[in-house]
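Subject: sequence -> structure tokens, single chain

Hey, anyone have a minute? Need the predicted structure for the following. Not urgent.
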Amino acid sequence: DVLIEAEEAYLAHQTQRFEILCQDLRRSGRAGLRLEAALLESRLWFDVNEYARAIAVLTDACALVPEDPRPGSGLSRLALATGNVEHAMRLAAKAVKIDSSDLSSVCSSALAQLEADPRRALEAWRIANALAPDERTIAGFLCSVALAQGKHEEGLVLLERVGQYQSQTSPLSEHPGLLALTRAALQTDSGA
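Reply:
Had a minute. Here:
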């Protein structure tokens, strides 16, 4: 219940209330609740560019529940956000090793690979897409990477499938990956 209150405070941008609720949650006797509070709190610090605070919270969470890949995945994204691609790759690989079916970890790995070696990113985004085949953001990354590697047919097949699960927030036709992929495929098909 306090976790729900904290999430509501986060969504309402009530930072002070949110921070107090998270501190209460992190003192809980239940490790799972403390972990969820830490993950939520790290999102706030990431959103407001307080990376040092987000890193501290996630580092504590890694020690608290080392068998959960999500804190390491978050640390990987923070490393990537601060330009430390090699560290992001190591953290993401460790998170994926803990649980190769954790979508957050697989996406962190794909994002880091996209920065480090875009050729390897295609396979990582394929894995993420297999875990969440109707997720537009993942499909967009996969399409963009496929386009960059000249795999237009793969991207078009993917987009047709994902189009069946149109997002409630915006139509898939507004997705920049779709537009770029479609243009490239049309140019290729017309012999341009």
